[in-house]
Amino acid sequence: MKTIIYISIITFCLQACKDNKVSLKAADQTVTTDTARINGVLLELTDHNGIGKLKITPDTYKLSGNIKIKSPCYFLRHNGKVSSYAYPQFNIQNTLIILGNTKKDSLNKNYGTEIQGILFKNDSIKIAGTLKNYSPIYAETGVDEKDYWGFASGTYKN
Predict the structure, then answer these.
(1) Which pLDDT tens digit goes with each residue over 47-71?
(2) Closest CA to 72 of 54, 56, 50
(3) Which of 103, 105, 89, 98 is nearest to 154 (CA)?
(4) Which of 8, 30, 75, 118 is deepest in the core (most CB within 10 A)?
(5) Phi, psi (rounded to 5 degrees) for 62
(6) Are 127 and 65 in contact (CB under 8 A)?
(7) 3-class SS string, the chain
(8) In whole angstroms, what is the distance from residue 28 CA to residue 18 CA?
(9) At 26, phi and psi to the nearest 5?
(10) Burial (Cβ within 10 Å: 0-12, 13-18, ≥19) of residue 88
(11) Max alpha carbon distance in the chain (Å)?
């Protein structure tokens, strides 16, 4: 009788462990939050279990750096188009900014308090420094051009 009880307990425990592994895999997911096409390159922002990632297709550019702002992330836009500025004096063809630590307001618009730069150089894309604000920034209205200059010049390093 004791043997049957021990076998039942072991079987129950093994089944419980098996179910936990399945539920962990189901929770492991990647969601695309935003996309943009710059210089023929598709930039894709993803949220992988709360961690922001940038994917580029095709991989003709060398990607360096990591997204350090809180996910989900979005590209800053103006009039529906992703905002981008060139700074030849810093050898930067395109400067984009992504918005993180986002929430939705009562009108379902994305806003956040953290931004990070993305810099296109000759054959590379660098994920640059971060800047944390106290006031909300809306993804559709963006920020002033001085912030793009701050990322391109290296002023915003942390």
Answers:
(1) 999 899 999 999 889 999 999 999 9
(2) 50
(3) 89
(4) 118
(5) -85, 125
(6) yes
(7) CHHHHHHHHHHHHHHHHHHHHHHHHHHCCEEEEEEEEECCEEEEEEEECCEEEEEEECCCCEEECCCCCCCCCEECEECCEECCEEEHHHCEEEEEEEEECCEECCCCCEEEEEEEEEEECCCEEEEEEEEEEEEEEECCCCCCHHHHHHHHHCCCCC
(8) 16
(9) -65, -30
(10) exposed
(11) 83
Asked if 52 contacts 83 with a C-beta cutoff of 8 angstroms, the reply is no
- Residue type at 145? E
Cβ neighbours of 139 (radius 10 Å): 19
Residue reference for tokens 């971060």: 130
Torsion of CA 90, 101, 110, 67, to 10 degrees: 40
For β-strands 81-82 and 77-78, DSSP reports them as antiparallel
> Taking the model in full, what pTM does it have?
0.81
